[in-house]
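Ligand: pyridoxal-5'-phosphate. Inputs:
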Amino acid sequence: MVKLALKGGKPVREKPFPKWPVFDEKELNALKMVLESGVWGTGQNVKQFEERFAEYQNAKYGVTVTSGTTALEISLRACGIGCGDEVITTPYTFMATATSILYVNAIPVFVDIEPDTYNIDPDKVEEAITEKTKAILPVHIGGRPANMSEIMRIAEKNNLHVIEDACQAWGSEWMGKRVGSFGDLGCFSFYSSKNMTSGEGGIIVTNDYELYVKAWSLHNCGRLPGKAWYEHYLPGTNYRMTEFQAAILLVQLERLDEHTKKRAENAEYLNSKLSKIDGLKPLKKDDRITRHAWHLYIFRYDPDAFAGVSKNDFANAIRAEGIPVSVGYSKPLYKEPYLEYFKKCPLSCPNYGKAIDYSKVQLPEVEKACYTEGLWIPQNVLLGSKEDMDDIVAAIEKIKTNIDELKHD
Ligand SMILES: Cc1ncc(COP(=O)(O)O)c(C=O)c1O
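Predicted complex:
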């Protein structure tokens, strides 16, 4: 008789994990107040949220925007990055990290990740620097801070900008300092799946007043603080956040610390349990990470310890047992078809002076992470109870015991 749910057996779990997003009367009241105030565009809620969130991330200034994607684009523009410039980044990330670079007509230079953190490898960053390099764009993947000590050392030595993609890392800390405040600018997303959300939305934080004014102007039609409404100084556009979004985010921020603590407890618990299963490895523990947002619980799968079953088949089997595991990024960003659309400009722009051909890029660690190894559990699952975590472990142990049912004939 078959045991695995994928083959018709009884699943380990039939009840759902905690729902996301989380909200209560506070969000409802905040929205009602905005409605009744008559100020629906940008107003006091936006201003307050910018101040509070920037402070939360150890930064002086904040500029709210429409998304994490637009936060990245504006940050690159604020640093003056454009045609003919190279930006070094990771291929293990959401596509917006790279498209934001392409949208400002610059060239993403992908370097490999560290096999045990899935973050950009600082040694590979250093090797990739050329006379065209203008910036490093690290991503704090899943909420795990990249090695900001090394990245800042390399940036300072080579006079490069650093724009942090902290779109998955609200409240994460590297050696006691919050991410987004190390580089020139830090970018965050408040998209629906994120640990704090307003459906859509984003923010840029910075400690540099000049960059703050540039980012503010670029997101607000090129206006400048204190100048007339119909005077436009920078090539800006409209990426402004509404009062509805900011009002919700002010409440979500109040809940973030409690949620982060819960996610961290459950992630540690999963680390202790999953590391005991032959063929599974959590990402490496690092004491320099003093706070982790745990947007994703990422763990590594070794098919050889599971009778050669692919990670896709393994993930399907876990999902059938009632656990929402995902295979995550299924290919490195340099393999995604969208790059074709940038082939002419900027990838073979005469101002760049050579043509980039991503089909020649081969980075072994990211390919292993995407194709054979990396599995994700989403943040809402980590808001569950210890018993919920035990169900995850039980599902995986059950699959391991009955792995022969997954072997192809
Ligand atoms: C690493 C990373 N960068 C950028 C983004 C873009 O954010 P948004 O979806 O708010 O545009 C996201 C979110 O999806 C992300 O996870």
